[in-house]
Amino acid sequence: MTLWTFLGRQWTILPSAPRGPYLKGKVVLMTGANSGIGLESLKHFARASPSKLILCVRSLQPTEEILTKLQSLHPDLQAEIIHLDLCDLATIKILPDELKKRGLNKIDVVINNAGAHPGNADKPPTFTKDGYEQTPGLAVTNLGRDFKFSLSFVLFGAPFLFLNARSAEKGARNVSSAVAQADQSYDYWAECGPSYSESSWLTSGTGIKATKALYQEMIDEVEKISPGVTKGLIV
Q1: Most buried residue, 135, 171, 214, 232, by most Cβ within 10 Å?
Q2: How far apart are CA 54 and CA 154, in angstroms?
Q3: Per the record, a Pfam family (predicted)?
Q4: Which domains does the chain have, with CATH numbers?
C-alpha cells in the first residue's frame, strides 16, 4: 500500500447508519457485545426495535449492568445474556442446546464480533485449555468457525449453506471489514492483501468444508492452500 493510497482511504465516505425500527420482528445474536465496537453496535440495535437481542459474552456481570441501562432507555427491549467464550470449545458446543432451552429456535441476524488480541509485546505465546494458540484472529476466524457451524444447527437444523450474497435471498452471509476494505481496491498484482483477506477463510480450517460444498460439482478435492486466490482452486 502506498502512502497516497493510505491517506486517500482516510476520507472514505460511508453510508449513514439506518434509522427507525428496521429490526422490528428480528432476533439478533451478537458475540462480544459488552465493549468496543460491539457495545456501540448494541446501543444502536437497541434503538431499532428488535424482537430480541441475544448477547453471547464471556463476562456476564458487566453485560447485565449494560443491559439494565439500555432497558431503562428502551423499556420494551427484550434480551437474553448467554455465557460464550470463543476460546473455549465447550461453551461453543453447548450453545445450541442453551438457545433451544430458552425457546430461541430462530435467529435472523448474527453479528460475529468477538475477538481476542494478546498484544504485540515480545512474550511467549499463550494457549487456550483446548491447545489453541491465542492469536489475534482466534475468536473470529479459527474457533469462531466452529461457533458458526455450531450455531447453524439452531438456525437451520443442519450446517450452513454457503451462498453467494448476490443470489441468496435466504442463507448465511459472512461479512467482515477486511473483505469490505479489500473489495474497494482489489488489485491482485499490486496488493496481495485483498486476495488473502477474501480467500483465507475458505481455504483453511472448516472453511475447506464450505469450499468443497460450494464447488462440489466442479472439483473432486480441495487442498489446503493459504494464502491464495480461492477461484484458482476450480481451474
Answers
A1: 214
A2: 13
A3: adh_short
A4: 24-117+128-136 (3.40.50.720)
